[in-house]
Design brief:
Layout (H helix, E strand, L loop, with lengths): L1 E7 L3 E8 L4 H13 L14 H8 L1 H23 L9 E2 L8 H4 L1 E8 L23 H14 L2 E5 L8 E10 L2 E14 L21 E7 L13 E15 L5 H6 L5 H34 L7 H21 L4 H8 L3 H28 L6 H13 L4 H8 L1 H25 L2
Antiparallel strand pairs: 1-2, 2-4, 3-4, 5-9, 6-7, 6-9, 8-9
Helix pairs in contact: 1-2, 1-3, 5-7, 8-10, 10-13, 11-13
């Protein structure tokens, strides 16, 4: 067997493989043995059928086909080993099997396959970044307390005109150019004026209305509205206000704090302050890490394989579909509301997919360069931690699997690599 390799763009290679006629005898023998083990011939034990008998039973074409497949698979594997390639996808071949005497003609074919690219790191050890400052402030504590207070508001029906902050119940019908549009009609629909859950201008038009009042008004859909067929258009709404409810907020006292599991208002503020600070500090740390990684990637040279981008895109699309359907909206309906096809979304997500793949490739190279590898004990400890967090038998089995442990090893390796890079960058 002879093979040559040619480098192609986007981290792909083209293998040209030739199997000489004299080398085909080995594969004919293997094909005969395999087929012989699959047939029953009177007078012979299974697997011990003579070659001539096997050929007469299965036919020359079937024997040639089996020989062809065995030879190609073996030759491809040997070529990969010979040239020390690391494929990341299935090869595309120019194979054309003809029912000929392979021992006389041999086989010649090409295989184009994406491979793990060589990542050339820049002088990453000299990269420095300025730490992102935490966005925490005590004002956020006040805002969170107010949000919690609003979430525990009570409502009582009143006979006055609606005002900002009231909860109202309405019937409405929306139309554009005199025609009702899908999703623009509802009955006994509750909303809180001022929460801005409707399109801009809608809730403001309800102020001053009393129970039983009817009103028509026109508002414009935002230009970036998720339903592209409605975006930027004027819509007329016919609204009937059914009832008005006044909101009463609880007092900010120790009783309120107790309802949230705190000992007092001071204790509540302390807990919220600590949690929010930790959250904002963590966000700042992640932003700093991302700045560092982006700076290192900018100095690296890597040709991203299309196969990895497509694989990442497939994962992103599957995750999006699950998220949408968990919200109770069929995926095709979601696409319809966007006015897009999945191909459009894939194109929009492509840049992010390429970014993720590039970061993964660079991180893997950094980890190998820095000789960072989680120990078995570290992996076991993380797996044990994950097991404690789940109760479902299926989840426990998934976490115990070899695949999940390899995933944990990769995640820990990435974390350890980033930590070391951060430590080095911030000490300069």
């Amino acid at each position: 067997m002879k093979s040559t390799v040619e480098q192609l763009p986007k981290s792909s290679v083209k293998l040209t493989i030739t199997i000489a006629p004299e080398d085909m005898k080995e594969y004919v023998a293997k094909a005969t043995e395999r087929l012989g083990s699959q047939i029953d011939v009177k007078g012979f034990r299974k697997g011990k059928v003579p070659a001539k008998v096997v050929e007469s039973k299965v036919g020359k074409d079937q024997l040639a086909h089996e020989t062809f497949e065995l030879a190609v698979a073996d030759a491809y594997y040997k070529a990969i080993q010979e040239h020390k390639l690391r494929p990341i996808g299935q090869p595309q071949t120019d194979l054309k099997h003809e029912h000929v005497d392979l021992e006389q003609t041999g086989i010649s074919f090409t295989a184009t396959v994406p491979v793990v690219p060589d990542v050339k790191l820049g002088d990453y050890q000299k990269v420095t970044v300025e730490a992102v400052k935490s966005a925490f402030s005590e004002k956020q504590v006040d805002e969170t307390i107010e949000q919690l207070r609003n979430s525990r508001a009570s409502f009582a029906q009143v006979a006055r005109a609606a005002k900002d902050g009231d909860r109202v119940e309405i019937d409405f019908v929306g139309s554009i150019d005199g025609k009702e549009f899908e999703g623009g009609k509802s009955e006994n629909h509750p909303l809180v004026i001022g929460d801005q859950t409707f399109i801009p201008g809608f809730e403001e038009n309800l102020i001053g209305m009393k129970a039983g009042d009817k009103k028509k008004f026109t508002v414009k859909f935002p230009k970036d509205y998720r339903q592209t067929d409605l975006a930027g258009k004027d819509a007329e709404f016919a609204v009937t206000l059914k009832q008005v409810q006044e909101r009463a907020l609880p007092k900010l006292d120790d009783e309120f704090a107790a309802s949230l599991g705190a000992k007092s208002m001071d204790d509540l503020r302390k807990r919220l302050s600590e949690n929010l600070k930790q959250e904002k500090d963590t966000e700042a740390g992640r932003e700093t890490e991302m700045k560092l990684l982006e700076a290192i990637i900018a100095g690296a040279t890597v040709e991203v394989p299309e196969a990895l981008v497509e694989e990442e895109l497939n994962g992103m699309m599957a995750e999006l579909k699950q998220q949408i359907e968990r919200q109770g909206l069929p995926y095709d309906k979601y696409l319809e509301q966007l006015g897009k096809k999945e191909a459009d979304l894939r194109q929009e997500y492509r840049e992010e997919a390429e970014k993720r793949v590039t970061m993964s490739l660079v991180l893997n190279t950094l980890q190998a360069t820095e000789n960072i590898m989680p120990t078995d004990e570290q992996v076991k400890a993380e797996v044990a931690k994950q097991l404690e967090a789940v109760t479902e038998p299926d989840d426990k089995e998934r976490i115990k699997s070899d695949e999940f442990q390899q995933y944990v090893r990769r995640v820990l390796g990435n974390r350890m690599t980033i930590d070391k890079l951060m430590q080095s960058a911030m000490s300069k």
